[in-house]
C-alpha cells in the first residue's frame, strides 16, 4: 500500500535523541540573593528619603566632602538594582537570528516568557540541567529551534481549566518541527509582594489575565484591583523594578526567588486541579518504542459528507486505540465553502483541520494500520510526533 511505503521510507524516519535527567540545578542562586538584597535596600532608601525632612538625625557628623543630594543617592541605588535585573537572560524575538555560543554541555531549551515563567518550570522538568532561553512570543520559540539557536522548545498547548492554546495549534502546522515529548505541570499560583509587605496592604495585583481569573476568589476577598500583564513572570519583574509597596503580583514561587519578592500566600488558585500540558518540540523526531506508554499527535482534514468524520475516528475505535484529545481549527486556506446556491441565499460551512492525540506508539502495527486506513479517508494527513507520555503531574 502506498501509505506503507510513505510510513517506512518517507516522513517517519526516526532520529535518536537522548539527554540525561537529574535534579534541578540552582545556577541563579547568587544572582537572586543579590537581587533580594538590592530590593530590600532600595525600598529602605526610599522610605528613609521620604522621612528625612521630618525626622532630625542626632549626632550627625560633618563630612569632609559635600554628600550627594537625595535624588543622586536614589539614582545610584536604582542603577545598581536595575543592573542586576538586566543580568537575567533577554527574551529572543521572532526576528533575532543571533545567539551566544553554547559549549555543548547543556541542552538549550526555548520557552515563551521571562525567567520565572511557568513555561521555564516545564522546561526544567523536562530537562533538569538545561540552559533555558526566554523568547518574547510563541513563534520566536519555534524559529529559535528551526534556526539552530536552541535544541528544543517547550510550549503550552492546553490547560485543564482554560482549555486549548489555539495559537500553538496553528503554529504546529505552520512550522515543520516534531513533538518529541510532553510535560504536565501543576500550576501553583503565589501572591507575591515586596519584602515586609502584608497581603492586607495590597491595593492592586498584576498578572496574566488567565492567572487573575484563576485566582478570582482570593483577589475578591482582598478587594484589590486586577491589572493584566503579558505573563506572570513579567508581572513579578515589574513589581520588583517599580518597588510599589501597595502592589502585588501572581506568579510562581521560582519567580519570587528570582526577583527577590516575598510569597504572601501560596496555592491561591480557585481550583487545585489546575494543570497545564506542554509540548516539547525538536527539529528531528525520536524513535518510538513500546517500552512505556506513548502518545501520537496527528492533524488531518476530510471531505465533507455524511458520516465522514465518524468514519475517520472509527479507525481508532475498531483497533481499541484511545483518543486522548481532539481539537478542530478552521482551515485557513479555504475557510468557507458554498453548499447551496439557491435563490434564497447560499449556505456556507467551515472547512476544518482536526488535531488528534491518540494513546499508541507508531512502533505498534495497530497504529500504523489505523493511519493507513485514515489516509484513505483524509484529504490531508500529517504526523506531528510520537513521544512518551508524561504520567507524573
The CATH superfamily of one domain bears the name ACT domain
Task: Report the major sheet.
Answer: 6 strands, mixed
- Tell me the overall shape: elongated
| First and last CA, distance | 41 Å
Which architecture of one domain per CATH? Answer: 2-Layer Sandwich
Helicity, in percent?
Answer: 25-40%
Topology pattern, helix = H, strand = E:
HHHEHEHEEHEEEHHEHEHEEEHEEEEHE
Please tally the helical runs, counting DSSP H or I stretches of 4 or more residues.
12
Count of distinct strands: 17
Q: Strand-residue fraction?
A: 25-35%
Q: Which oligomerization state do the chains in this entry correspond to?
A: single chain
State the low-pLDDT regions, or none: 1-37, 39-83, 95-104, 335-339
CATH topology of one domain: Alpha-Beta Plaits
Question: For this structure, what is the CATH class of one domain?
Answer: Alpha Beta
Counting helices, strands and paired strands, the structural category is alpha+beta
Radius of gyration equals 26 Å
Mean pLDDT: 79
Give a brief rundown of this model:
With 393 residues, this protein is of the alpha+beta class. Helix content is 33%, strand content 27%.
3D architecture notes:
The two termini are 41 Å apart. Helix content is 33%, strand content 27%. Mean pLDDT is 79; it is low at 1-37, 39-83, 95-104 and 335-339. Helix 2 (29-51) packs antiparallel against helix 3 (70-85) and helix 11 (308-317) runs antiparallel to helix 12. It has a domain at 285-339 and 348-388: 2-Layer Sandwich (Alpha-Beta Plaits). With 393 residues, the protein is an alpha+beta fold. It has helices at 2-9, 29-51, 70-85, 118-126, 138-146, 166-174, 209-214, 216-222, 232-242, 253-259, 308-317, 365-377; strands at 108-112, 131-135, 152-159, 163-164, 178-186, 190-193, 204-207, 225-228, 247-251, 262-266, 275-282, 294-302, 323-330, 336-342, 345-350, 352-358, 378-388. GO terms for molecular function: arogenate dehydratase activity; prephenate dehydratase activity. One of its GO terms (cellular component) is chloroplast. Its main location: plastid. It catalyses: L-arogenate + H(+) = L-phenylalanine + CO2 + H2O; prephenate + H(+) = 3-phenylpyruvate + CO2 + H2O.
Amino acid at each position: 500500500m502506498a501509505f506503507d511505503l510513505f510510513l517506512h521510507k518517507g516522513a517517519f524516519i526516526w532520529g535518536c535523541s537522548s539527554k540525561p535527567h537529574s535534579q534541578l540545578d540552582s545556577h541563579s542562586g547568587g544572582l537572586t540573593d543579590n537581587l533580594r538584597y538590592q530590593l530590600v535596600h532600595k525600598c529602605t532608601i526610599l522610605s528613609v528619603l521620604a522621612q528625612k525632612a521630618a525626622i532630625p538625625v542626632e549626632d550627625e557628623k560633618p563630612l569632609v566632602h559635600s554628600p550627594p543630594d537625595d535624588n543622586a543617592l536614589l539614582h545610584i541605588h536604582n542603577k545598581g538594582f536595575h543592573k542586576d535585573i538586566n543580568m537575567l537572560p533577554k527574551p529572543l524575538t521572532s526576528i533575532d537570528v543571533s545567539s551566544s555560543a553554547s559549549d555543548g554541555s547543556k541542552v538549550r531549551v526555548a520557552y515563551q516568557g521571562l525567567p520565572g515563567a511557568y513555561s521555564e518550570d516545564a522546561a526544567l522538568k523536562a530537562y533538569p540541567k538545561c540552559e533555558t532561553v526566554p523568547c518574547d512570543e510563541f513563534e520566536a520559540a519555534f524559529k529559535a529551534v528551526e534556526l539552530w539557536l536552541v535544541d528544543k522548545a517547550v510550549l503550552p498547548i492546553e490547560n485543564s481549566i482554560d482549555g486549548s492554546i489555539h495559537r500553538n495549534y496553528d503554529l504546529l502546522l505552520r512550522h515543520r518541527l516534531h513533538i518529541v515529548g510532553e510535560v504536565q505541570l501543576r500550576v501553583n499560583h503565589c501572591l507575591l509582594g515586596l519584602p515586609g509587605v502584608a497581603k492586607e496592604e495590597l491595593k492592586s495585583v498584576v498578572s496574566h489575565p488567565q492567572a487573575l481569573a484563576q485566582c478570582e476568589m482570593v483577589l475578591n476577598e482582598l478587594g484589590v484591583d486586577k491589572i493584566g500583564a503579558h505573563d506572570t513572570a513579567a508581572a513579578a519583574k515589574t513589581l520588583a523594578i517599580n518597588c510599589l509597596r501597595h502592589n502585588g503580583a501572581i506568579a510562581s514561587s521560582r519567580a519570587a526567588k528570582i526577583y527577590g519578592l516575598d510569597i504572601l500566600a501560596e496555592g491561591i488558585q480557585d481550583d487545585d486541579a489546575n494543570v497545564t500540558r506542554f509540548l516539547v518540540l525538536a527539529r528531528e523526531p525520536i524513535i518510538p518504542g513500546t517500552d512505556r506508554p506513548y502518545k501520537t499527535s496527528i492533524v488531518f482534514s476530510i471531505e465533507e459528507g455524511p458520516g465522514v468524520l465518524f468514519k475517520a475516528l472509527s479507525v481508532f475505535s475498531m483497533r481499541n486505540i484511545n483518543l486522548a484529545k481532539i481539537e478542530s481549527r478552521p482551515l485557513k486556506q479555504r475557510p468557507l465553502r458554498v453548499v447551496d446556491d439557491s435563490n434564497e441565499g447560499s449556505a456556507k460551512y467551515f472547512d476544518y483541520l482536526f488535531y488528534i492525540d491518540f494513546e499508541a506508539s507508531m512502533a505498534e502495527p495497530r497504529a500504523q494500520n489505523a493511519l493507513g486506513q485514515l489516509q484513505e479517508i483524509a484529504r490531508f494527513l500529517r504526523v506531528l510526533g510520537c513521544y512518551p507520555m508524561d504520567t507524573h503531574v
